[in-house]
Amino acid sequence: MTSARDFVKALGDENAAFWADRDVRLDAAAAPAVRLEQIRYRMRQGVYNELRSVELIAAWIPHVPEREIRELLPGQLDDEHRHYHLLRRRLLDLGEDPDAYRPLPEWEALFDWLVACRARPTLEKLAMFQFAGETQSCEGFETLIALAADVDPETAALYRTGILPDERRHAAIGRRALTLLCDTPGAQAAARAACREMNERVFGAYRAHRARADRRA
Ligand SMILES: [Fe+2]
Ligand SMILES: [Fe+2]
């Protein structure tokens, strides 16, 4: 059997391979004005996503019996709450009303599904959100920071210093959980399937996100 550590490394590589060229939310080749609009759209949707992350972690905490993993989650909840306020404040400073934004139904459905997964085994939940989801989020934030650097350096700095370091820690919670729990072939198969399920759903949300941003809806 593959050791848990080797398995986690291999699964991380599989997830990275899935995501190659699949984060379609931003277009690196777009004209600066279009790129800025795509970044703004990410921020509007991001306010919602951070708030739903707070709700999601709160819903999951009572269903994570493994104490050494459970005790990492209130800190994550706190971080997501702070991210919500940071992004909301930035949009207000830019003259937008963040509360007027209508979240994309596909993102709503994704979070509704994740909340409803609360009773699934810890290794499946954390494979989905912290391990697959948050690792991809870090990649997405790195892309956003690079593409915002010239058109909106203040927002790029906010993501670089106020959000990305926390998200890296959240992804590490996922790696830690899987390293602790994926110690049988059955557990490893369940974690792999959970990542696949999550990646497909997130990819669906990304495509819908971009289509709506292009329509400027
Ligand atoms: Fe966050
Ligand atoms: Fe996070």
What attributes characterize this protein structure?
78% helix, Heme Oxygenase, Chain A, 217 residues, binds fe (ii) ion, globular, mainly alpha
Task: Indicate the topology.
Elements: H1 4-19, H2 32-60, H3 67-70, H4 73-93, H5 105-116, H6 122-148, H7 153-181, H8 185-215
Bound molecules: fe (ii) ion (2 copies).
Give structural notes.
- This protein is mainly α and 217 residues long.
- The chain has a single domain, classed as Heme Oxygenase, Chain A.
- Helix content is 78%, strand content 0%.
- The chain has eight helices and no strands.
- The longest helix has 31 residues, at 185-215.
- The structure holds fe (ii) ion (2 copies).
- Residues 53, 80, 134, 167, 170 line the site of one fe (ii) ion.
Could you give a quick summary of the protein structure above?
By secondary structure, this protein is mostly helical. It has helices spanning 4-19, 32-60, 67-70, 73-93, 105-116, 122-148, 153-181, 185-215.
Q: Helical region count?
A: 8
CATH class: Mainly Alpha
Would you identify the regions where 5 or more consecutive residues have pLDDT less than 50?
none
The CATH topology label is: Heme Oxygenase, Chain A
Question: Which structural category do the helix and sheet elements fall into?
Answer: mainly alpha
